[in-house]
Specification:
This protein is α+β, with helices and mostly antiparallel strands and 342 residues long. It has helices at 18-26, 73-90, 110-127, 178-187, 199-210, 216-221, 236-247, 262-270, 275-280, 296-306, and strands at residues 52-62, 94-104, 130-138, 144-154, 169-173, 228-231, 250-254, 287-291, 310-317, 321-325. Helix 3 links the parallel strand 2 and strand 3 (130-138). Helix 4 packs across helix 5.
């Protein structure tokens, strides 16, 4: 993070200078990472244990694109770190640390930074990683944040998208569609629960959007049990489609087996057309994976140990793409292709 100090900006500022900002808000996040060198040097120095490989992922988030302009700093901090840890989970990695680059506008004053860094600290403790460094700059807007996260796996044991095989069962963790339905509820005008949706269900869906959870414990314990895996960030169909494309296979999914929360079921009863949102809305950060039949019992035991639903939703066969079928096996037409950045 160490860089020459920028020229002073014109006008008063409610935010400390770069080096004071780093020392006050971000250096405490690096206290558990000796390689971060207290964020006082030009770079971090990281050691990788013998017999392990480094896993690296990065995401950039922009206000007004990836989160609401008026989103609370706690929500932003939790989400930007969680989405990166979710990528590590999808590879079966153990998180070790991250670097954070911030392009801050005038709206991110000292009070905002205090709240942001406090929640970032709580989230990194939840996932067992520390801040290694990064960069801090000013921008006229919008607020832009980039995290690069690092994890390790035993050599040769990273779970890739390319390993799915015909005969595999397709599984997904947790429930699907809640976050996308929560986002739709937040965008609703006038605000308030959708028709047929209780206040409790409305709030539950919004909470899933604002407070995603990375399935890191599940991901690393699936090493050796599964053939291919991805996290559900762009949508179930899209992310399973990535597995199928890189593996050269076809997935057939039974729509009736896709796990839905009570809130999502209520939303679909009120408006069946929301199935497209459930299938392609994204931001669930659950894990979708394929596994051979001999792993079935161990996956069930693992789900029970973690107290986390893991549901078989389909099979892998020859061909290409993802087919969503009804209980009779008839293919359902759907419009969604998942979230697209461009």
């Amino acid at each position: 993070m160490a860089k020459p100090p920028p020229r002073p900006s014109e006008g008063p500022s409610e935010r400390p200078g770069e080096f004071d900002l780093i020392a006050t808000y971000f250096a405490p996040l690096a206290a558990d990472a000796p390689g971060a060198l207290g964020l006082r040097d030009d770079a971090a120095v990281l050691a990788v244990e013998p017999g392990r490989e480094m896993v690296v992922t990065t995401d950039t988030t922009v206000a007004g694109v990836h989160f609401f302009i008026d989103a609370e700093p706690e929500e932003i901090a939790h989400k930007i770190l969680t989405v990166n840890v979710s990528d590590l989970a999808a590879m079966g990695a153990d998180p070790i640390g991250y670097v954070l680059s911030t392009a801050l506008s005038d709206a991110q004053d000292s009070a905002w930074l205090e709240r942001f860094s406090k929640r970032l600290h709580a989230t990194q403790r939840r996932y067992g990683l520390s801040l290694f460094g990064g960069d801090t700059v000013a921008t006229p807007g919008p607020l832009t944040l980039t995290i690069t996260a690092f994890g390790t796996v035993p050599a040769g044991r990273a779970i890739k998208r390319s390993g799915a095989k015909p005969g595999d069962t397709v599984y997904v963790s947790g429930t699907i569609g809640d976050s996308a339905l929560g986002l739709a509820a937040l965008k609703k005008s006038p605000p308030g629960p959708a028709s047929g949706l209780s206040v409790e269900h409305h709030q539950a869906l919004i909470a899933r959007y604002r407070e995603p959870q990375a399935r890191i414990d599940l991901g690393r314990r699936l090493r050796g049990l599964v053939h291919a895996m991805a996290d559900v960030s762009d949508g179930l169909v899209a992310d399973l489609g990535h597995i199928c494309e890189t593996s050269g296979v076809r997935a057939a999914i039974d729509a009736s087996c896709i796990p839905l929360s009570d809130a999502a079921q209520s939303a679909l009863r009120a408006d069946p057309a929301l199935l497209d949102t459930v299938l392609g809305g994204g931001d669930d950060y659950e894990l979708v994976f394929t596994a051979p039949g001999e792993s079935k019992a161990e996956i069930a035991r693992l789900a029970d140990t973690l107290d986390l639903a893991v549901t078989a939703i389909g099979t892998i066969g020859a061909g290409a793409g993802v087919a969503i079928c009804d209980a009779s096996g008839k293919e359902i037409n759907y419009k969604t292709t998942g979230y697209r950045h461009f």
